[in-house]
TrEMBL record:
GO MF annotation, one: RNA binding
Signal peptide span: none
Keywords associated with the record: RNA-binding
Highest taxon above the source species: Bacteria
Record carries keyword Metal-binding: no
Protein name from the UniProt record: RNA-binding S4 domain protein
Domain RNA-binding S4: 184-246
KW Transmembrane (keyword) present: no
Gene3D superfamilies per the UniProt record, alphabetical: 3.30.1370.160, 3.30.70.330, RNA-binding S4 domain (3.10.290.10)
Native source organism of the sequence: Caldicellulosiruptor acetigenus 6A
Length: 260
């Protein structure tokens, strides 16, 4: 079957797709904003739900350039002139601690305090501090009520655009690596990229736990190319930055960005 059509909706994305359908049906005039959406949901909205809706325009934003989780803004064509100056309901929270924090700790603590995942965008962690992008409606609650991440005492504050260097956080989230593969089969690239066996990589693909450019695939032999983004559940993401050269033994050298 190779790369899947966007008609396949993973179980964990069905709820947000349903909410998107309701949001689109609700729009009659003006602007509507979604909650934070996964990349799959954004892609599904654009390529399926909005495909033939010529009277509805859209933009998305997650708080910074290159964000993974984004809020989708949909609006009637009457509002096209305002498209580049939309005010998204997003606040940026700075979390500071004495010791290092992790993405898992922060997300777990926020959800453990009763906050819903779709109100939380990207979490950028660097050492003992983190930036968390959230919906307006929960920002004050976090600043007022969250004083611990796990057992670690933290200080949470709302920061405005320009108050902090987001790039400092972004540069910590990826690692550039170069390695060789026998071919550009997706199972081979994943196996070397995450240090798992070829068989384990193939099993993940058959279980629909691997997406290429946010579309799930089920064939280990699927060929990837330069620029593709591979998402592997419970492992992270790989972006194929460059296909460099072929060695004398016929192996292909590739440069990859690995995101944890």
């Amino acid at each position: 079957m190779g790369q899947q059509a966007m008609t396949y909706i993973p179980e964990e994305n069905k709820h947000e797709v349903l909410k998107l359908k309701n949001l689109i049906e609700k729009l009659s005039w003006g602007i509507e904003y979604s909650d934070f959406l996964s990349p799959f949901a954004i892609k599904y909205a654009v390529e399926v739900l909005l495909k033939n809706q010529n009277h509805i325009l859209h933009r998305c934003w997650g708080g910074y350039e290159g964000s993974e989780r984004n809020i989708l803004a949909i609006f009637s064509s009457d509002f096209e002139e305002y498209a580049e100056n939309l005010t998204y309901p997003i606040q940026t929270i700075l979390i500071e601690a004495k010791n290092n924090l992790s993405h898992r700790q922060i997300l777990g603590s926020l959800i453990g305090n009763g906050l819903k995942r779709d109100k939380i965008g990207d979490i950028l962690v660097k050492e003992n501090s983190a930036l968390v992008f959230v919906k307006d409606e929960i920002a004050t609650y976090i600043v007022t009520n969250i004083d611990k991440i796990g057992k670690e005492k933290v200080k949470c504050s709302i920061v405005e655009n320009g108050q902090i260097d987001i790039k400092w956080f972004i540069n910590n989230s990826s690692k550039r690596i170069v390695y060789t593969v026998a071919s550009l089969r997706v199972d081979s690239v994943i196996s070397h990229g995450f240090g798992i066996s070829r068989e384990e990589a193939a099993d993940l693909i058959r279980q629909m736990k691997v997406a290429v450019n946010w579309v799930y695939i089920d064939k280990p032999s699927y060929a990837v190319k330069e620029g593709d983004l591979l998402s592997v559940r419970h492992h992270g993401r790989l972006k194929i930055e460059k296909v460099l050269s072929t060695t004398k033994k016929g192996r292909i050298s590739i440069e990859v960005l690995r995101f944890s």
